[in-house]
Amino acid sequence: MTNLVDIPKVNAKNMTEKEFFYGHKACAGCGGSVAVRLALKVLGERTYTALPAGCMSAVGFIYPQMAFNTNAVITTFPGSASMASGIAAGAKALGQKDVKTVVFAGDGGTADIGFQALSGMIDRNDDVLYICYDNEAYMNTGIQKSGLTPYGTKTTTTPAGKNIPGTVTHKKNLFEIIAAHDIAYAATASIGYPQDYLNKVNKAKHIKGATFIHVYASCPTGWGTPTETSIEIAKDAVDCGLIFLAEFEDGEYKLNRNPKEFAPVKDYLKKQGRFKHMTDEDMDVVIENRDRKWSRMRKQWL
Amino acid sequence: MSHDPAIRTGEHFLNGDEACAEGALACGCRFFAGYPITPATEIAETMSRRLPEVGGVYIQMEDELASMNAILGASSAGVKAMTSTSGPGFSLMMENIGLGIMMEIPCVVVNIQRGGPSTGLPTMVGQQDMMQARWGSHGDYEMIALCPWSPQEMFDFAIRAFNLSEKYRIPVLIMADEVVGHMTEKVVIPPKEEIIRLYRKKPQVPSNEYIMYETNGSLVPPMANAGDGYKVITTGLTHNEQGYPDMTAEAHEKLITRLCNKILLNKADIVEVEERELSDAEVVVVAYGSPARSAVLAIKKAREQGIKAGLLRLRTVWPFPEAEILKLAKQAKTIIVPEINKGQIVREIERCAKGNCEVILISKLALIHTPDEILEVIKNRRL
């Protein structure tokens, strides 16, 4: 493995001014497009990019606005990780040493339909960085529940009304599921903490083998939030403890942020249309779940 | 008249996807396994809202393999179950559709066809999965596929699809297209008393005498649901009447022949066509789904110009209306087939016409034919 100490930190001064994802047709305030743009600035032009059906492939491949300045392929919905495995193997067979294969997939494409392929990719330790931009529902088809949709969320397939209170399941713990594969490197991130995200991408870039980053990416269209608050709300999610920043490296978990006090969860929820219907009791369920998770993480990881 | 929240008796203004969901509910569907895909998502969305209102269950699956498996499971437990999808999801369902055929599990699968192959044209119309509907899963089998041309028929055919699936113990396909799925029109939902709602034939023998796939001369065995108290053993392997695996040529021949015959020998019950102006027709448009709507105006205009034109609309496409096509081919000089594909059902028509008349394909991709495009071919035919 690369000695991670030697990897220079990415910052505004040493980051390229080149853009590899621009001119796309994403909604105003799209968090997913920020995640892709920033990652590619770190990964650079010698990147093979694979995307399943989803927002980023839908908004990035509208001729003449072909938004990727790297090689990019839209795969089948379940197939991105396997396609990337093949790309990486092909590059290796050709003796290409200065390339990186990356997947950008949404939460549904990762935690649901693409999960089997992702698991296989990690199991074989294929040389692929898999980035899941998580906007917490199938947004491209118009806001349907995914395995990463949090408790209480109103979506078009988990409507909130007198029979059901919206989504009744909690968000899958994707990060730890991935870590359980004994992957060389996995991390969580948020576009609300871009510096942290950039450095995690940079770390993954320098590691040979399968790596994974789960980045929280706001979606004004699906969340019912003002477009100008996308970065702020992705930061709020971390500050209130619903999203945690962590890494898994050499078999060890590391909490990157461990605040003494969380910002109020209810303020975060009340800002968003998707949670508007939630009662105080519903919100308490969310808080209890957060606290349970954090107490376990602190006990086991610190 | 008792009030049943599952049956919204009255006149409505619905799109085809919504009407399809209402038809399923009216026929007693109480389970839906959903996965989002354009242009079928509205069916899942409607079911996710409506099923909890009527004591049913909607679950969102992780992919279409899971959706198809879940409805097979739910139906095995005794609940009428449905899923919906479009091209890529339909491809993923294929293996499990074959399992449903082999285990003889009633259920309904709706395909709102869009342009393919692959991701293709998610928001535009297609009829490119018609042969996949027939042959998409591996092996030999017969299929039932209905092709609605309006939101009203999306409602009606959802009911018919459930009834056929329960009667013949087979997954039934509703092969609609994007235009029909997204078009909004008047839909009349009849009173509950007027809706035929069939349920699978249940075993009449004591549990110790029950033989899973014993047909007693009929082609469709009675079906015990899991939990009914009967020993239910089933498999996708070739099996004998007990349901036990029997990997012999004799068992395979017997099983596959019966699975095919239960559909083929009941074509009179399953196949439905609509005839318009056929009695003296010399040129006949044979169409299904949304292009048939354009054909109605095309033959009207042709008649106004003195051309003896008619329309045969295929409401059932699988099993194929072979006898109807042969009869027509002997009467007409020309059959014109508008399809939103490169020519799929036209091959069946050519096969059934046995050279008795000229067969012309009007292929169009991603859009429905205009009436004038069909009229033009009617006027310019050679015979």
Automatic annotation (TrEMBL), chain A:
<dbReference type="GO" id="GO:0044281">
    <property type="term" value="P:small molecule metabolic process"/>
</dbReference>
<dbReference type="Pfam" id="PF02775">
    <property type="entry name" value="TPP_enzyme_C"/>
</dbReference>
<dbReference type="GO" id="GO:0030976">
    <property type="term" value="F:thiamine pyrophosphate binding"/>
</dbReference>
<protein>
    <submittedName>
        <fullName>Pyruvate synthase subunit beta</fullName>
    </submittedName>
</protein>
<dbReference type="GO" id="GO:0016491">
    <property type="term" value="F:oxidoreductase activity"/>
</dbReference>
<dbReference type="InterPro" id="IPR029061">
    <property type="entry name" value="THDP-binding"/>
</dbReference>
<dbReference type="InterPro" id="IPR051479">
    <property type="entry name" value="PorB-like"/>
</dbReference>
<dbReference type="InterPro" id="IPR011766">
    <property type="entry name" value="TPP_enzyme_TPP-bd"/>
</dbReference>
<keyword id="KW-0560">Oxidoreductase</keyword>
<keyword id="KW-0670">Pyruvate</keyword>
<feature type="domain" description="Thiamine pyrophosphate enzyme TPP-binding">
    <location>
        <begin position="53"/>
        <end position="215"/>
    </location>
</feature>
Automatic annotation (TrEMBL), chain B:
<feature type="domain" description="Pyruvate flavodoxin/ferredoxin oxidoreductase pyrimidine binding">
    <location>
        <begin position="22"/>
        <end position="256"/>
    </location>
</feature>
<dbReference type="InterPro" id="IPR009014">
    <property type="entry name" value="Transketo_C/PFOR_II"/>
</dbReference>
<dbReference type="InterPro" id="IPR033412">
    <property type="entry name" value="PFOR_II"/>
</dbReference>
<protein>
    <submittedName>
        <fullName>2-oxoacid:acceptor oxidoreductase subunit alpha</fullName>
    </submittedName>
</protein>
<dbReference type="Pfam" id="PF01855">
    <property type="entry name" value="POR_N"/>
</dbReference>
<keyword id="KW-0560">Oxidoreductase</keyword>
<dbReference type="InterPro" id="IPR052368">
    <property type="entry name" value="2-oxoacid_oxidoreductase"/>
</dbReference>
<dbReference type="InterPro" id="IPR029061">
    <property type="entry name" value="THDP-binding"/>
</dbReference>
<dbReference type="InterPro" id="IPR002880">
    <property type="entry name" value="Pyrv_Fd/Flavodoxin_OxRdtase_N"/>
</dbReference>
<dbReference type="Pfam" id="PF17147">
    <property type="entry name" value="PFOR_II"/>
</dbReference>
<dbReference type="GO" id="GO:0016491">
    <property type="term" value="F:oxidoreductase activity"/>
</dbReference>
<feature type="domain" description="Pyruvate:ferredoxin oxidoreductase core">
    <location>
        <begin position="281"/>
        <end position="359"/>
    </location>
</feature>
